[in-house]
Specification:
The chain is α/β, with parallel strands linked by helices and 248 residues long. It has 10 helices and 6 strands, in the order αααβααβααβαβαβαβ. Helix 10 links the parallel strand 5 and strand 6. The structure holds zinc ion (2 copies).
Length: 248
């Protein structure tokens, strides 16, 4: 599939999701099975039980689920990520995969759901942050998708946490080839020099919360962290909806 053209299937899906977002305000139906919910929860009890919450053992550095209670995972032991720490609400699997896909293909209203799910993770795992940044998109990608899902999530979290989202702090200077089929090394190379800090002064000595939908290889989080640290940020805390568990 050519990376720069949205397949028609995705286009129609996006239209459908946008219509659904307008017709069904959040909080009334389960985001997965559409059954009615009454207590303001995102999911009905049955779907909630099946969700892969990242609440077991996790790596204290990258936040990925691990099978045994070790301080850090094997990947972090091999090479420590650039960011200070990363945490996620869910393991990237099960129904979460479809939800994240919908979030990227028109279901903008899921930003509210995901903010509701990630807020407690921030409060439990991080003490504070001076401001929030989201992963910027290049102008071309933004035109293609019509919105930046990372920025939408950051906006919603900003309201919930009472922490400013500095949406203009970072810019993506060039479009990067689709990352899907690249290894971590290739991804890092692909991203090198593609992010730039636009508000350098604001970053000096600050604890910055970087918000994104999924932590996959961590290449994006590393690339963004690298430029934030180059602008003298003190700490970069990463918060994502989901993270890919450690591979054995
Ligand atoms: Zn349900
Ligand atoms: Zn790790």
């Amino acid at each position: 599939m050519p990376p720069f053209f949205e397949p028609m299937k995705d286009f129609f899906k996006r239209c459908k999701e946008q219509a659904r977002g307008a017709l069904f305000p959040a909080h009334y139906t389960c985001e997965i099975c559409r059954k009615e919910v009454f207590d303001g929860a995102s999911f009905c009890p049955a779907c909630e039980r099946a969700l892969p919450r990242n609440d077991g053992f996790f790596c204290k550095k990258c936040g990925r689920r691990i099978l045994e209670d070790f301080p850090v995972c094997l990947e972090c032991k091999r090479e420590l990520p650039v960011y200070t720490a990363a945490r996620s609400a869910f393991v990237y699997g099960g129904e979460i995969v479809g939800l994240v896909r919908r979030f990227k293909t028109g279901a903008k209203y899921l930003a509210r759901t995901f903010a509701r799910e990630t807020e407690p993770v921030f409060r439990a795992e991080y003490d504070f942050s001076d401001f929030i940044v989201s992963v910027p998109m290049s102008g071309e990608s933004l035109r293609r998708r019509g919105y930046n899902q990372s920025a939408l999530l950051a906006d919603e979290l900003s309201v919930r946490l009472g922490i400013e989202h500095r949406a203009a702090a970072l810019v993506k200077t060039r479009d990067t080839a689709a990352q899907k089929f690249l290894t971590l090394g290739e991804r890092e190379k692909n991203l090198t020099g593609s992010f730039r800090v636009h508000e350098r002064k604001a970053c000096e000595g600050k604890t910055i919360l970087l918000v994104d939908d999924v932590l996959t290889t961590g290449a994006t989080a590393n690339a963004v962290s690298r430029v934030l640290f180059a602008a003298h940020a003190a700490r970069v805390l990463v918060l994502t909806v989901a993270s890919v568990p450690q591979r054995d």
